[in-house]
Amino acid sequence: MVKFITSCVIALSIVSKLRASSPYTDHRVPFKNGADVTWHEEFVARVVNISQQYLSLPEILRPTDLGNGLVMPADTPREHLDVFYLNPSKTVAIGILIENYSKYRLGDPRTSGTHACSYNHQRNTLLTVEPGSSEYMVVDNGGYAHHGICGTVSWQIFQENGSPILNDKLGTRFTITYYVPYRGPCGQCSKRRENTFSLNVMRIPLNATHHWTTPNVMEKFWDSYHYKGIGSVHQSGGEPILGLFDKGRYLARGQMECGCKPLLVVQFMPGPDWRKMMWAKNKMLMEALSLSTSSQGTLRTGTGIPFLVIVVGSACTGFLVLVLGFCGIRKCKEARSPGYDSAPIN
């Protein structure tokens, strides 16, 4: 009996290590990872294809009618930053472009600074991001020397009809944190200037009318999630990253430029169960998103050893439960690793 239990524990430990070695065991997905480069690059190529589809422009970037037949052409976000900060003396700034490729509404937009960056100046109002549209926000340091900018931007995820996405009666919020330091060169990528950002999806408590009950805690988001938050994906300026959240329901792709006035582009799109969440019934878009059966299986199971997990895990776990008694539902939940499925933000 003792030997069998010991064998089960060892087997489960091996399986756990094998699962931990897979880049798809949780919702964090590195841009490239060893042997999975070929498959992952194919997946990334399709994501890039999706991200090239047309979205409606934010109001701030749309063409402006000047009258008398004159129209100021639309700016790209990069052009807008370059014009807005033509001579950025002592200024660091960031443009955040959020693109919504899902059928969900990103509503109740909220922004927050942190005690570490008390000179943030938000230059325009952040709006709800409707399905198939984009929004844009600019933040700078007001020209104050030796002060960088950092903060949090977040949206609550709603159904098309306006009802909130609920998970155990908790709301769901997509969150971006960013940091642009003051020091370091402006014209190139450098370790002296590490512009960084993170992406996360978290649960929030809601009241009877489905409004966030504790929005004041957003000031703590940056401290909690930008660098050390388990359950977020984080990257320095330059390389793009992909993040899968809520067990693959949502996918976010982010990329941040180097320099003193970087552009951060974040694309919110469907995860593996994308058929339920597409905002467009465009054949080209559907084909761009369609994953092969093997790719879907790999992404969903998150491991190349599903048979071993099922056989060893089921046999040993079942036996141990019978021998040791029961595992209370509450205790099981408490035993989970921190992250999206952990306790809500109060």
From TrEMBL:
Key words, A-Z: Membrane, Signal, Transmembrane, Transmembrane helix
Signal peptide residue numbers: 1-20
Regions that span the bilayer: 305-327
Superkingdom to which the source organism belongs: Eukaryota
Name of the featured protein: Protein amnionless
Naturally occurring in which organism (per UniProt): Tigriopus californicus
Organism lineage: Eukaryota, Metazoa, Ecdysozoa, Arthropoda, Crustacea
